[in-house]
Amino acid sequence: TSTTVSPTSTSTTVSPTSTSTTVSPTSTSTTTTVSSTKVSQQFLAAATASKAAYVTWRSKITSKTTISQAIGPCDTYAAALTNFDNAILPIAVTGKTETDIQTLVADDRVVIKNLEAVKTETVAHIKKDAAQLIATGEKAIRAGDVVRSDLGLPPS
């Protein structure tokens, strides 16, 4: 016996007495799937602004700055991370990639909270906590690199 199934059919049943069954493309199903290329492009587009804000923030926070010099880059970076998270959360992914995006967003929220706290700190406190601020940011970047890997993108 032989069975020919067109690529648009979803299933076929062949009885043991038939010698040949052909299923025509009368049964179709619609599946909405976002291509991995589109998902990667969405992620990269969202990451561009937050990466630029991170670079500016890091250079300011590691140099000898005043609070007023640190607030602007901190606010810009916090806003960029918030926009990034809002852009990547609705990306249509499932499984490990969805979980990894949720982890990234959770890590980003810690960074955002720390960035927003800078307004209430002293210069001495910022200098003391700079290493921790950077470590928290780098943890979020590593989480982002996991998502990038999930999407077949190189690390940041």
Protein described:
- With 156 residues, the protein is mostly helical.
- It contains four helices and two strands; from the N terminus they run E-E-H-H-H-H.
- The chain has helices at residues 36-62, 67-88, 95-117, 123-150, and strands at 2-5, 20-23.
- Helix 1 runs antiparallel to helix 2, helix 1 (36-62) runs antiparallel to helix 4 (123-150) and helix 3 packs antiparallel against helix 4 (123-150).
- The radius of gyration is 24 Å and the shape is elongated.
- The N and C termini lie far apart (54 Å).
Brief overview, please?
This protein has 156 residues and is mainly alpha-helical. Helix content is 64%, strand content 5%.
Keywords:
156 residues, mainly alpha, two-stranded parallel sheet, 2 strands, elongated
Q: Layout of SSEs?
A:
Blueprint: E1 2-5, E2 20-23, H1 36-62, H2 67-88, H3 95-117, H4 123-150
Parallel strand pairs: 1-2
